[in-house]
Amino acid sequence: MAEAFPLADRPRLRPVEIFPVNDAGQRMLVLRDPSDPSIRPIVVSDGAAQVLMLLDGQRNLPELTTALTLRGSMIGPTQLRSFLERLDQAGFLEGARAEKYGSERVARFRAAPVRQAVHAAGAYPAGATELARMLAKGYLDAVGPGELPRPRQPGTPTPRAIIAPHVDLHRGAPTYSWAYKEVAEAEPAELYVVLGTCHTPVKGHFAATKKPYDTPLGAVPSDAAFLDRLGRACGFDLFEGEFSHAGEHSIEFQAVYLRSLGVAGEGAAPMAPILCDSLHGMVPPRGTPREVPLVARFVDALLETLASERRRVTLVAAVDLAHVGTRFGDAWRVDAAHMQDINVADHELLRLALQPDADAYYAHVMRDDDARRICGFTPIYVLTALMQAQQRRGDLLRYTQWVDTDGSSSVTFASAIYR
Fold first, then answer.
1. Pairwise CA distance, residues 219 & 213, whole Å
2. Which of 90, 175, 332, 334 is least crowded, fewest Cβ atoms below 10 Å from its Cβ?
3. 24-76 residue pLDDT tens
4. How are beta strands 42-45 and 26-32 bridged, if at all?
């Protein structure tokens, strides 16, 4: 018999992504759990937005029905209960069912020998041959480098760091290619420290995993010894939020590229995969991230651990930049004028990061309270602080603006290198 889960008395929506789609000319809403791609998204009518915005855990069913009636909705109590039960069964409401789903996901992740390639067959092909073909097309694309990586030239210095996108490869492969062509043609690193954006809250703010990252091309091992040394230097539990790696895509996409080049994986270098939570809400007004003890400890610990390394190390910031348009909550649709403003602002951000000036970079993002929703806020800050301490300047390789065909959104991203 299936386990029974009564509907919560005061339903609360879990942290989920909600975005509009056009289905045969009809506007619909998609609900997706960004923490776990194994949870199937659901599609609901545009009118369901009135219900979703009321699911804050403060109202019972009669109160929800009344609130909807006052807003002119025709949803009655029976229809409302049915909709809430659908949300609950999908795992999108807080409560016993979602807790059980969550516990099962954590247990599966902990038991797995590798961090599985959960975004294969979605964000990029699951087959090795098809994936290799896609990556090659990215290098050859008109907005890519225009050629495949050349054979490694002995004596070409290992990059100190790169900035690469974390957008899906269908949209971003040509831009990724600029950074990874530099990696391919240089002396290979013996360790890749990958700082990835996490799109969901992270326990402990910075979270590493010792699990190998699997890809369709083979796994990339994690350097457990390096991460243990870093964790001791941090003075906090660097693995408390390890489960955040289970569904997050930002580092997975870098593992795909590193493995494809043969510079990481079996017989080559390992990674040190570290996810970073947002700086929002951590820094005091008119302050800097260095004033936050947790952030300062992490940056200093990473500097210290890198300084003790005798191996060649390349840092990778897996980041996107602006997320704008109605899909992301703006009142305006994307047009040429808006995108020109975004272009200017993004290039100023990149100039400060590559200069590098960590405090100026942070001030730039916060001057309008991160109105562009920079989806690499923390990893770029950490990388900029590290490169500033090491007195390494960077060079922009490629900047890209991807605009949705319906004008509802734009995502921007870039590739850069610190030599």
1. 5
2. 332
3. 778 899 999 887 777 889 999 988 999 999 999 999 999 999 999 999 888 89
4. antiparallel
DSSP 270-310: -EEEEEE---TTTSPTT--GGGSHHHHHHHHHHHHHHHT--
Helices within 17-95 (DSSP H only): 49-52, 61-70, 77-89
Please list, in sequence order, all residues whose beta carbon lies within 8 angstroms of the beta carbon of residue 377, skipping any fewer than 6 positions away: 197, 278, 279, 280, 365, 370
**Residue 162 is which amino acid?**
I
What is the CB neighbour count within 10 angstroms for residue 228? Answer: 15
Domain boundaries, the chain: 17-106, 118-418
Per-residue pLDDT tens over the stretch 139-195: 999 999 999 999 988 889 999 999 999 999 999 999 999 999 999 999 999 999 999
Angstrom distances, CA of residue 4 to CA of 88, 96, 254: 12, 10, 41
Q: CATH assignment of 118-418, given 3.40.830.10, 3.40.50.2300, 1.10.274.10, 3.40.30.10? A: 3.40.830.10
Handedness of CA 76, 77, 83, 84 (dihedral sign): positive
If you ran DSSP here, which 8-state letter would residue 207 be given? E
d(CA 380, CA 387): 10
pTM as predicted: 0.92
Strands 313-318 and 161-164: parallel
The reply to whether omega before 356 is within 30° of 0 (cis) is yes
Length of the chain: 419
Domain 17-106 and domain 118-418, same fold? Reply is no
Which 3 state secondary structure label does DSSP give 33? coil
Question: In the CATH hierarchy, which top-level class contains the domain 17-106?
Answer: alpha beta
* 28 close to 73: Cβ distance less than 8 angstroms: no
The set of residues, in sequence order, having a beta carbon less than 8 Å from that of 175 and lying 6+ positions away, is 143, 144, 165, 167, 398, 400, 413, 414, 415
Contact 334, 408 (CB under 8 A): yes
